[in-house]
Structure formats: structure tokens, C-alpha cells
Amino acid sequence: MQVNQVHYSTPQFSVLSQDEREMIFKGALEVMERVGGRFFNEEALELFRNSDAQVTEDNLVKIPSWMTIQAINDAPNTITLCSRDGERNVHLGKNQVYFGTGSDCPFIYDRNSGERRRYTCEDVYNAARVVDSLPNLDFFMSLGLASDVPHDETYDRHQFFSMVRGTKKPLVVTAVDKEGLHDLYQMELLLTGSEDEFRLNPRFAVYIEPSSPLAHSNECLEKLLFCAENSIPAIYTPCPSAGATAPASIAGMLIQTLAESLQGLVLSHLKKPGMPFIMGGVVTIMDMKTSNYCYGAPEMSLASAALTDVSKYLDLPMFSTAGCSDARVLDEQAAIEAQISIETAFLSGASLVHDIGYLDSGLNGSLEMLVLCNEIIGMVKHLGKGITVDEDHLAADLIDQVGPGGNFLTTSHTFDHYKNEFFFPKLLDRHNVETWAAQGKNTIVDHVNKSLDQILSTYEPEPLPDGVEKKMKEIIEKADKKMEQKKG
Question: If 0-12 CB within 10 Å is exposed, 13-18 middle and 19+ buried, where does residue 417 land?
Fold first, then answer.
């Protein structure tokens, strides 16, 4: 009998030691106490004034460390998101990883003309259908920013409608402002049935972004407070750019990012203790040659994994980034950058991993990239399964039975194990060169396009329940009419 064994059922990965995670956290607490953050919302300022925080006349708020620690301790460490049919299939917590798209890219390459153009509601709907059909994507953000709407200020209602028509998977939504978020919530309640049911089984989380460095706009705070009031899961995720809106050192960027996210947590705690809160940060660099905000940089993957280490230290769900690229089109660069970020995000154990499908530094939401990343995620998940080491899998008796010069192809052990042990690609080509040539010398991009064409031409999502579509349209029309009257 062997004793004191250590078994790793999956690969082990981390960037920061336990001491380094503590240093990042203590650094963020110091920033929140000594530097503070500016809050441009009167309700938020009043909540801070009625606490032990220090509020100055120029909207600067400094938060004592004990308030931050209390808010962290009261925050839930697990949050569940549900599909349209009520299935509780996204469980956000430590080392439970889910992949999904990003939101609001302005452009898409038209599949007919090949030209870059603005996103439409139909494009958002098609992106939702593609995600609904892909088994390795777990949640959906809009991917594109719907432009063919009556008013820019009401795009979020039209976009949400396209999203819920196209997929039943859990959603992460964006909203223009508090009024927009209110309407999205009312549209969702038509599906969920009641506020009580939504609190138990939320269908979506809300993406909310403060302004680095250390500023929180009125719009983002209104949405955060609305989420707290209604127990809607809130993702409060800064998007700093190292060397521009954050220190050029990765550790310095992490401290600032964490402080910005935790400032939102403390405010939401003051509004409603224990509300569902997801910390995050799209943490990357500004390219010093182009000034671009980099989505394919290795620094983004490294910093995101480090911030995930800190989230696990704090026992908070983490919103991370992967499956995106600075490449202008789907090519070898896109595949390289997507693979590195997806593998790093998965092994880091981040909770919600978004921006799958981004090209052109977040300007182009690519359906082709979604299909490619689905294959990459499948490979990475297979890698993440690790290796089972027990008597059956060691197969010493089988090796003895087959012996030198034999083969394992016809053994029952092979039949019993190959389906679970082996990865079966959907897009990657493993044929010999003669077969590959006979089949047309197709590249991975050719396989991606063929798969995408099949999805778009054949896949039909589950329709909305009877009557819901009409009621959702009424909410949208009311918002559009109100905006028309406002513009006069």
C-alpha cells in the first residue's frame, strides 16, 4: 500500500504565488484608502457619505480597508446563470470555466461581398444562432453593435431582442443606461416569469465598465445600483491599457484594476449586501508603436491569469478574456493568438471567459472566428482533462498480454478507452497528403467557412414562447417613441 500520494487529475497552472496574490490585494486596498476614486453619481456619493468612507467636494471617495474586506466576505462566491429553458448550466465559481463571445464590435466582414460593414440586428441574430449551435461556447454576448436601429440610444433593446431570438444559452448583456437596462430586465421577465424566479435563476449578467484610471461614470454607476436593487448579477470590469491608462508594469496594472473593480463591489454592498457580483478586468497593453489596445498580446493572457489568481484568493467569480486577436482577418495570426489566450484562460480557472470571436483589436466581430475558437476550446478542454493514472489505465497486464511485436487495435481495452482518451477534431485535417490533395487541398479557413455556411443555412434556434415576441416588441417600440419625443 502506497501512502502520502499526491494525485493531479488535471494540469496545474498559476502565475502568482499566494504571497504575491496577497501583495496585489493589499496594494489595491492601499490605493482605495490613499488615492481613492471619483464617483459621478449622487446616489452613490450619498451611500458613501452615510458610511465610513471619506467623500470630498470633488467627488473623490476613499474607502477604509475594513469596508472592502466586509464587502468581499459578504459577496457570493458562486453565481448560477440559466438558459432560457431554465437549465442551471453556468455555475460561476473557483476553477469552473465557461466560454462566450464579447459584445458590441462595430464591424463585420460581409460573407457575400467580403467587404467590411457595420453590424446589423440580423448579424447579431446570426451570431446568436452560431453560438447556440456550437457545443464549446457556453454563453452569449452580442458580438456586434446593432447599427440599423431608429435611435442609437435604444440600440440595446433591439440588440437584446436579436440575442434572445437566436439562442437559449445564458447571456451577458450591455445597456446604454439605467433606462435601457430596466427595459432589458422587463423583456427578460416575460421569459422568466417573475422577479422572484429571476433572482433564483438569473438568465443574464450585466457588463458594466468603469473608466480607468479610478473613475466611475454616472451611467455605469446607475446600472450597477439598478443591478444591486434587483439582484441582477453584475460584472464590474475595468479595461485598463498598461502604459496609457494604467502603469506599464503588469503588477501595477493589476493593483489599479483590482482597486477599480472592488470600488464597485463596495458600492453595490452598500446598496444591497451580498448581491451577485463578478469581478474582472480586460487587462492588456497599449502597443507603443501603433497605440492600439491589444487583444492578442501575451501580456493580456498573463495579466488575466494573474488577476484570476487574485480572484481565487478573494473567492470571487472572475470575468476574463480570450479567443480574440489583433489580426484583421481570420488567418494564422488569429489562430495563434486565440489558442494562447484560450489555453491560458482555461488553465487559470477563470469563471466567465469572454471576447471569443474578436478580430481587429475588438473592432470586428467574426462568425468565422467563433467556429475556429470552438475547435480550439475543444482541444484545450481535452488537454484540461489530464491523465487518469490507476491500475486499469496503466494497462500493465494488457502490455504483458499483447507482448513484443503485437498490436492493441483489436483489444477490448482499446475499444473501452479510445473514445474518452482521444480528441476527435471537427475542423483539423489529419489525412495523408494524397487524400488531402484529392479532397481539394483545403486549409483550416476553408473548413471553417464550410462549417459556418452549414450552420447559417440549416440551424434553427428554439423559437420564443407564444406571445412573448409581441410583448418584447411593444417594449422596444415604447422606448423608440419616447426617444423620438425627447429629440422633439
Answer: middle
C-alpha distances in Å from residue 414, one per residue of 395, 398, 405? 10, 10, 17
Asked if residue 404 belongs to a domain, the reply is yes
> Would you say the pTM of this structure is higher than 0.90?
yes
Pairing mode of beta strands 204-208, 171-173: parallel
Instruction: Tell whether 103 and 142 lie within a shared domain.
Output: yes
CA–CA separation, 124 and 162 (whole Å): 6
- Kindly state whether residue 377 falls inside one of the protein's structural domains: yes
What pLDDT, in 10s, does the model give residues 117-142?
Answer: 999 999 999 999 999 999 999 999 99
Tens of pLDDT, residues 418-430: 999 999 999 999 9
Mark whether 100 and 120 lie in a shared domain. Answer: yes
Q: Which residue has the cell 440580423?
A: 122
Task: Please tell me whether residues 92 and 186 are part of one structural domain.
Answer: yes
Range(s) of the domain holding residue 417: 391-421
287 plus 379 within the same structural domain:
yes
Within a 10 A sphere around the Cβ of 431, how many other Cβ atoms?
11
Mean pLDDT over each residue of the chain, to the nearest integer: 96
Domain count across the chain: 2
10 vs 129, residue with greater confidence:
129
Residue 224 predicted with pLDDT over 60: yes
SS (H, E, C) 127-144: HHHHHHHCCCCCEECCCE
Of 337, 355, 384, the last residue of a domain is: 384
- Examine the pLDDT at 299 and tell me if it is beyond 90: yes
DSSP 366-426: -HHHHHHHHHHHHHHHHHHT----SHHHH-HHHHHHH-TT--STTSHHHHHHHHHHS---S
Per the structure block, which three cell numbers stand in for 101? Answer: 463571445
Element (DSSP H or E) covering residue 176:
none
Which of 305, 385, 287 has its CA nearest to residue 342? 305
Q: Do the domain assignments include residue 378?
A: yes
Task: Please say whether the beta carbons of 105 and 68 come within 8 A.
Answer: no
Q: Taking phi first (over 0 means left), then psi (-120 to 50 degrees means alpha), and beta for anything else, what does residue 436 get?
A: alpha
Decide if 313 is inside a domain.
yes
CATH of the domain at 136: 3.20.20.480
